[in-house]
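User: I'm preparing a small set of examples for a lab meeting where we compare how different chains pack in three dimensions. I only have the primary sequence for this one, and I'd like the structure in token form so I can line it up with the others. Please keep the answer compact; I'll paste it straight into my notes.
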Amino acid sequence: MRQVIHNRYLLPLLCFSFLLGSCKKELEEVVVAPVISWEAHKEFIHNRRFINNIYGSDEDLFVFGLNLFSRVSLTTGEEKVEHAYHYYSGLAECKLPLNRKVFVGAYGKTLRFKSNLYPVLMDSYLTINMEEIDPHFSSFEPIRSNSVEAIGLTDNNVALVPYYAYDAEKVSI
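Assistant: Understood. Below is the structure token output for the 173-residue chain.
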């Protein structure tokens, strides 16, 4: 009878089959924690997390929220957060402007400029009565958008304010 497998191949074949049969890798399940790219700041949680506009200068970060105006400063290596309530309405539809010195908004028939440096002092604002400037003033007409500011404000504190003026003969914007 003829030999099917040569003797010299028999030992390596047995070793190889033994290795294949005995090597069973057990898979271990590893749970990886999700990577958090950002965290909510402890001062900006709950209703404070809604931001209407934000402005950063070299010294401070100004955050204009739906109810609060906040100033975040990093002086002497320590973070300091100040909040002040504001009474502007319609911030879900309109983005009000701010720069490094002031923020501005319409309140009734007045235009109010408030200092960013001392936001906690709510009575420290400049009020401009629009009826005194333009006797035909009717109402403000802020631009309804979340991407552009409703009132223009430059870094030199020049404001461009859209409003309705009503004259008996014509209506102008």
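A couple of notes for your slides: The CA atoms of residues 87 and 166 lie 26 Å apart. The two ends are 111 Å apart (CA to CA).

User: Perfect, thanks.
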